[in-house]
Amino acid sequence: MFLTAQHQGDPSTRLRTSYVTAFDRSAIYGIPGEPDIVAVHLERDDSADTIRAAMTTEALVPLAERWLISRGADPEQLAQTTIPIRPADPLTRQTEEFLRSSGDRFTVRASYTDESEPYDIWVIAQDTAPSPVEAPMRVWHNRRQVGDDTYTLREGGFADLDAAYAWTRDTSAPLPPVTSPSARAAAARQSTVPATGRPRLNPTSAQPPPGPGRPRSR
């Protein structure tokens, strides 16, 4: 089942390129939990009658699109999906766009796709360039709302891989924020502390007051 498709052509070189994401129905009969989203990059050289193909599998569509974008796909065209299931809210759309445009920042460490209700999908990824206030491990959790054909995508932050795995044992638990309140408070304190603890003196106030035998400055 095709989800997104983008085709480009260059008449001068007779090179045609396609970027496709698709749902792999055969994954249902494979190893439980394996990802079922396929991203395919095709290059057809009509002048040489050759085809080059590259493919990867991901648990989430925006991660598959991220891979295609890294190979030259147009992000705006990829966003025009034909997926019949819709994002449930603006936060889901925002998180998808963040993943789609994240480049090589995140390295996927594990994922699980449940092919039965509630069709949960979780992905654990390592942030290769975390900020000082962000957790180094991310978890993205996708849950489908079968009744109205929508889904939600949420993001959480964890200190290490073991903590991220521990959360996946009960996906009904709330995800911790990527930036903890204590980290935000520490960063705020650091940004407000002056470079030196001693206030700079006004040069005019540092002069001793005039006294007997001392001429008043002009």
Query: In which order are the strands of the major sheet placed?
Result: 5-9-8-7-6
Q: What is the β-strand count?
A: 9
Q: What distance lies between the first and last C-alpha atoms, to the nearest angstrom? A: 89 Å
Rg, alpha carbons: 27 Å
> What is the H/E string?
EEEEHHEHEEEEHH
**Low-pLDDT regions:** 195-218
Q: Determine the structural class based on helices, strands and strand pairing.
A: alpha+beta
Shape: globular
Oligomer: single chain
Helix content: 10-25%
Taken as a percent bin, the fraction of beta residues is: 25-35%
User: Helix tally?
Assistant: 5
Q: Main beta sheet, described? A: 5 strands, mixed
Instruction: Give the rounded overall mean pLDDT.
Output: 84
